[in-house]
Amino acid sequence: MKIKVRNRLLMTKGVIAARREAGQADHYSWVWVLPLRSGEFRVAAIEVPKDLIDNDECFFEDDMTRPYVKIVDSVDDVDHAVREAGVDPETLDAPWYSDFPL
Fold first, then answer.
1. Which of 5, 33, 37, 86 is paired with 100 by a 20 to 30 Å CA distance?
2. How far apart are CA 89 and CA 66, in angstroms?
C-alpha cells in the first residue's frame, strides 16, 4: 500500500477503501480497512445493490453482503488480506476516492 494510505491507518486511524469486482452483476463492491481500538485491522469486502447506490437511498446491514471479512494483527498484514479480498493494495485510498458509501 502507498505510504500516505498506511499513514492514514496508523496516524489518524482513518478508514481506507477501494473498488472491487462485484460477485453479482447488479451490485457494486468495495474492500475497506478499518483500524480497530485493539490495534488490529478489519479488512472486509462488501457488496451493495446498485439501485440503492444509484438512487442515493439509505441502506442497512441487511442490504449488504460480505463475501470477505478478516481481522489482521498488524498493518503489515493488511496488503495480504486485501489481495485475498480481490483488490490490489496500491488502489487503496481515502474512501471518497472510490465513492465508498459508508
1. 37
2. 19
Measure the CA–CA gap between 92 and 101, rounded to whole angstroms.
15
The answer for residues whose C-beta is within 8 angstroms of residue 35's C-beta and 6 or more apart is: 9, 10, 13, 14, 15, 41
Give 13-66 pLDDT, tens digit per residue.
999 999 999 999 999 999 999 999 999 999 999 999 999 999 999 999 999 999
Cα–Cα distance, 96 to 93 (Å, whole number): 8
Q: Is the pTM of this model over 0.85?
A: yes
Over the stretch 86-96, which tens digit does the pLDDT of each residue have? 999 999 999 99
pLDDT on residue 19: 97
Please report which residue ranges of the chain form alpha helices under DSSP H. Answer: 3-7, 50-54, 78-84
Query: What residue type is assigned to position 11 of the chain?
Result: M
What's the CA gap between 77 and 75, in Å, rounded?
5
